[in-house]
Amino acid sequence: MTKLDGFKDRINAVELLRIVKATHTYAQMSKYLALPIPVVSRYVNGRVLPSLKRSKEIIRLFNEKFLLDAVRSRVRVDESGIFQLSALIRDAVLQRVIAKVMSLEFKLLQIDKVLTVETNGVPMAVHVATELGVDVIVAKKEKEIGIDEFLEEKCIVSPSVSKYFYVPKDSIRTDERVLIVDDIVRTGVTITGLTGLTEQARAKTVGVFAIVLVEEARKKLKKHLGATCQILSMVEVAA
Fold first, then answer.
1. Which of 11, 53, 211, 233 is the most buried (most CB within 10 A)?
2. What phi and psi values does residue 179 have, to the nearest 5 degrees?
3. Banded pLDDT at 1 (limits 50, 70, 90)
4. Does residue 192 fall inside a structural domain?
5. What does the pLDDT look like over 141-181, one tens digit per residue?
């Protein structure tokens, strides 16, 4: 880790504490963090930056005690069993926080590109790419006008239904390390299609992140991508 990386972690910890302060008292935060109230106050007000070791602990605790509850409270399941993430998708601040926390999980993978598909997962992918400092590539379901060459992947949804994904041919380069991001992964079919694009580019899918991931889809993706690909989600649900 460079000095700059360490400084970013310390700043991130302060930003997360400020987000928690919007809905919690200093006394509550002191209890959760096992820190004196004056110390928490100095961090939140920016008078003092926590040490790198303490920053990592703050980030871990935020992820365990605050972030998951915030995400789960915005995930709904309707009467037909369909997951509704609209409350989460429109919450730009929460998505930015999710990206900040999850980017810390993926930064050791040395990501070169973030890849997503043109759905509700685009904002999340943009936030993650911003935190990682890399480009985001959006796979389209139709060819864009003005682009001459594409990588094209056919995705089989069912025996009678298929769809296509397209990205500009030079958007992903040989040997680049790709992180795929989506809002929800129900079957893994879309993610498998996106990995096909990285394979065509002779790049490597090293990670997959979804806000909500169905357990069965994780199993399928793990089998398809292998043990070296890191698959993470905020919420994992049974099929």
1. 211
2. -110, 125
3. low
4. yes
5. 998 888 889 999 988 877 788 889 999 999 999 999 999 99
First to last CA, the chain: 39
Q: Identify the CA nearest to 178 among candidates 226, 99, 102, 113.
A: 113
* pTM of the model as a whole: 0.80
Among 183, 189, 187, 179, CA closest to 216: 187
Q: Residue 106 pLDDT more than 80?
A: yes
The residue assigned the tokens 């040989």 is 174
Whether 85 is covered by a domain: the verdict is: no
The reply to whether 219 and 118 lie within a common domain is: yes
pLDDT, the chain, mean:
90
Could you tell me the residue range of the domain that residue 109 belongs to? 93-237
* Residues 56 and 108 occupy one common structural domain: no
Q: Quick one: which of 83, 86, 153 has its CA closest to 115?
A: 153
What is the sign, positive or negative, of the torsion defined by CA atoms of 45, 49, 53, 55? positive
Bridge-based pairing state of the strands 150-158 and 135-139: unpaired
Domain end among 48, 65, 82: 65
Helix (H), strand (E) at residue 166: strand 161-168
Count each helix (H run) and each strand (E run) in the chain, helices first.
10, 9
Amino acid at 164: Y
C-alpha atoms less than 13 angstroms from C-alpha of 139 in its C-beta half-sphere? 28
Is 145 inside a domain boundary? Answer: yes
- What confidence score (pLDDT) does residue 207 get? 97
